[in-house]
Amino acid sequence: EAQVTQNPRYLITVTGKKLTVTCSQNMNHEYMSWYRQDPGLGLRQIYYSMNVEVTDKGDVPEGYKVSRKEKRNFPLILESPSPNQTSLYFCASSYRGGAYEQYFGPGTRLTVT
Amino acid sequence: QQQVKQSPQSLIVQKGGISIINCAYENTAFDYFPWYQQFPGKGPALLIAIRPDVSEKKEGRFTISFNKSAKQFSLHIMDSQPGDSATYFCAATFNDYKLSFGAGTTVTVRA
User: Fold this and answer.
1) Among candidate residues B14, B5, B21, the one with its CA nearest the CA of residue B76
2) Which residues of A touch B101 (CB under 8 A)?
3) Model confidence pLDDT, tens digit, residues B17-32
């Protein structure tokens, strides 16, 4: 089954404790992206990757890091999480870019206390 | 700063009625305008999309109307059904990589 998986689905952590949210896709897609969803703000792009070893900032990259060492994986790293990063996070992938259908993962609900 | 402004924030419609969601943008370089549908507890999924060389696109009960000169586009849901109750996001992209979403509209269809 074609899908995007994210882990963990739920995470409660404390300020400053480094964490990684994993994302994996099995569709051989070149493009992967991370979004955060907040009430009243919709989906905001954090980082995206056009292919292996090629990443770029979205609209809200501050406080986040990404890497793309393999085509299928695109982890999101929060080196020192803060309460304002409490949000619902989605990973997505598509054949080539934003102008192609994006397939979203199930989401990761992150709470930083 | 939201590059795509979406309204209304929420709407309630009776079964069989028409739901209309509007979006506006400023960046004239945008060249692809998708709409995504999201059900509670799920990730968004592509519903329908349009490019600016077309003024209207219809897929089943869903229609996108596009007004390039006004820099506006809208989603019409005809014959709304309870199963259409969801959050709808408009979006836009211009370099094929960055995608800007609207703030979302929660649609509730009353039976």
Assistant:
1) B21
2) 35, 42-45
3) 999 999 999 999 999 9
